[in-house]
Amino acid sequence: MITKDQIEKALEKVRVGLKAEGGDIELVEIKDDIIYVKLKGACGSCPMSSLTLKNWVETTLKKEVPGTKAVQAI
């Protein structure tokens, strides 16, 4: 079972890079091993946010939090 603490720890690794670009990320919900997040700040309106989410955020979370099926923005 995926825990909020596991996800928050992994998100800290991602958050550093997002904050450097004027953005941030917030954990919204965990449901059926899918992690729902909200991209904030500059990342929330960036046209590259979907690539960032799949290629960086999801890859990092799947590596750091075993059992993660997907990461989706809401």
Walkthrough of the structure:
The structure is a single chain. The mean pLDDT is 95. The chain has one domain (4-73): Fe-S cluster assembly (FSCA) (GMP Synthetase, Chain A, domain 3). It contains three helices and three strands. The chain is 50% helix and 28% strand. It has helices at 4-20, 42-45, 49-64; strands at residues 23-31, 34-41, 70-73. By secondary structure, it is of the alpha+beta class. Strands 1-2-3 form a three-stranded mixed beta sheet.
Q: What's the SSE blueprint?
A:
Blueprint: H1 4-20, E1 23-31, E2 34-41, H2 42-45, H3 49-64, E3 70-73
Parallel strand pairs: 2-3
Antiparallel strand pairs: 1-2
Helix pairs in contact: 1-3
How would you characterize the largest beta sheet? 3 strands, mixed
Strand order of the largest sheet: 1-2-3
Average pLDDT score: 95
The CATH homologous superfamily name equals Fe-S cluster assembly (FSCA)
Q: Assign an overall shape.
A: globular
Q: What's the end-to-end separation, in Å?
A: 22 Å
Content of β-strand: 25-35%
Q: Tally of extended strands?
A: 3
What's the CATH architecture name? 2-Layer Sandwich
- Which class do the helix and strand fractions yield? alpha+beta
Return the domain count: 1
CATH topology: GMP Synthetase, Chain A, domain 3
Helix content: 40-55%
Helix and strand run: HEEHHE
CATH class term? Alpha Beta
